Amino acid sequence: MATFREGVLLATGIGIGAALSPGAWTRAAAAGSSGHVQQQQQQQWPPTTTAAAAAAASPVLAGASTTHSLGLGPIVRERCCLVVIDVQESFIGKLPLDWREPLVERMAFLMKVAAALEIPMLATAEDMDHDGPLVPALVEQLPASAPQVFNKMIFGLASQPEILHAVEATGRDTVVLVGLETDVCIAQSALGLQQRGYRVVVVTDATASPPPHHEHGLARLRQAGVTLTSTKGLHYEWMADLATLGQVKVEQYDSFKGGSPMAATRYTL
C-alpha cells in the first residue's frame, strides 16, 4: 500500500488540505493548478476540509507550508494544541514501577507549559465506567477553558466526532500527543489525525506502553512520518527564544534522560 502524506497547499491564495502519495504530491506541485490538486485529492483519499478550515480560521495558519505539514519544520507553539490521552490508573498500573511517577510528572509539566503559553489542550479517558477517570494529577492541570474530559470509546480519537470537533475548534493545525498507550491509542490517534491533514507530534518520553510495545509503537509512528520529540526538546521548541524562556516560569521537573522512559538516569530540566 502506498504511503500517504497530508499537507496544507497554498493555491491561488487559498489553503487547501490534501492527502497525497509522494508521487501524486510531485504531480500536483508540477501542475500548479488548484483544480488539479483537488482532483488528485479526490482520487487519492476521501476529501477533508479540516486543514483548510483551520487555516482559514487562524492568521497563524494562513501561511501554512508544506514543509511544516510534512513534519520537517519547527514545532511552532502558535500552531499547536496539546491532547492528553487515556492517562488512567488501569493503564499506568501495567507499566514498570520506575516509569509511572516520572511519566505523569512529564505530562503535567507539559500541561503547565501549554497553559502558560496559552496553547489549547484537551484530554480523554477510555471507557471511564470500566477503566476509571483521568488521574487527578493531570485533571488539576486542565485550564478552566478546556472541554470536560472526553469519554473515549474508540482507540483512534479522530474517529470519535465530538473529540475531533474539539480539536478542530482549537483552530490549530499541529496536534501534540502525550499519554497511553504508545502502540494503540497514541498510534491510532496520530495516524487518524495525520490522515485528516494535521501535523502530529508525539512526545516519546511522555507516552508509554508496557515493554516492548512502547518501542514498537514509536517504530510505527516513525514509519508513518509522525514527528517524534522529547519533553525537553518540545519545551524549548515551544519557548523558541531566551526572552520567552525568561518570562514564562514553570516549575522544574525531574525526568529520565533521553528520548525513552526505558533510560533510567534522571536529570533536571
Q: What do these coordinates show?
A:
This protein has 269 residues and is of the alpha/beta class. The protein folds into 2 domains: 5-69, no CATH class; 77-268, Isochorismatase-like (Rossmann fold, 3-Layer(aba) Sandwich), CATH 3.40.50.850. Helix content is 44%, strand content 20%. It has a 6-stranded parallel beta sheet with strand order 5-4-3-6-7-8, sandwiched between helices. The longest helix is centred in the middle third of the chain and has 20 residues, at 97-116. It is globular, with a radius of gyration of 18 Å. The termini are far apart. The relative contact order is 0.15.
Observed structural traits:
10 strands; 269 residues; Rossmann fold; two-stranded antiparallel sheet; disordered N terminus; alpha/beta; globular
Distance between the termini: 42 Å
CATH topology of the largest domain: Rossmann fold
Count of spatially separate domains: 2
- Helix/strand class: alpha/beta
Helix content: 40-55%
Can you tell me the residue ranges where pLDDT is under 50 for at least 5 consecutive residues?
1-49, 62-67
Mean pLDDT: 78
Trace the largest sheet across and list its strands: 5-4-3-6-7-8
Question: What proportion strand?
Answer: 15-25%
CATH superfamily of the largest domain: Isochorismatase-like
Report the principal-axis shape: globular
Count of helical segments? Answer: 14
Architecture of the largest domain, according to CATH? 3-Layer(aba) Sandwich
The radius of gyration is: 18 Å
Number of strands: 10
Q: Give the biggest sheet.
A: 6 strands, parallel
What is the H/E order?
EEHHHHHEHHEHHEHEHEHEHHEE
Q: Using the coordinates above, name the CATH class of the largest domain.
A: Alpha Beta
